[in-house]
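Example (one chain per record):
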Amino acid sequence: MWHKLLVLLQTIRFQHSVFALPFALTAAFVASQGWPRADTLAWILVAMVSARTAAMSFNRLADLDYDRRNPRTRKRALVTGEISRRTLWAVLAGSAAVFFVSAGMLNALCLKLSPLALALLLGYSYTKRFTVLTHWILGSCLGIAPVGAWIAVRESIALSPLILAAAVTAWTAGFDIIYACQDIRFDRKEGLYSLPARWGARRALVISALNHVVTIWLLAFFGQTADLGWLYYLGVVALIPVLWWEHHIVRPNDLRRAETASFVASGVFSIVFFLFAAADVIYISSRLRI
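Predicted structure:
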């Protein structure tokens, strides 16, 4: 049973929940102007994890035929039969139910918007079939996380979380383009749309880097609109070497570390961002109380 659970968690890449979660937590801290309420924070975590679990389960089901034909993905558990389609459908249904319950436990606006959020998360799985904008659509799936967390705290939408959402969208598109470079030949053969398949790895990596330049600018802009302080901006500066390393280890003719660049660097990026942003918010709130 433990083995099946571990296989399931690997199938849905559960560890990659770390990508969007720190940005949602950042928005919650900024919206609360300090530590969020414990119950609000708990339901945000439940909503985030359940929504992503539903999305990844659906993604594996939607891409099953492609995964069977792609040499890079033929060993995935759903392809080999270690995990059944019935199991993933059950996980999808259960996760969606938990997501709606958690949204309802947060507030009425979260519950009203939850079907739209889940539709975007599930719909992304089909976008590679018809548009090269798939990378930015994936980015918007992660980008709605800070908006949702802001709504969870304040039950309203403001400019600051929208700017943070735009930053997350550009950042995600940047690392997803790097990841997609691994499948250029397969995507072209299958008629799938991706930036690397359309324009080649060299141009795609340039566009990826430009997305990350925009990301840094948008994060700085977010700091201005949210009235954050020097600790936050120090964190933004600290992110620049992470992005540099991410692009440094990947070359158009050497994509062996594309997955490392996409996932390891992105995990570090999101965690470092949250730690500095949260520290800044807590520092500012403590000074205001003095």
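Caption: The mean pLDDT is 93.
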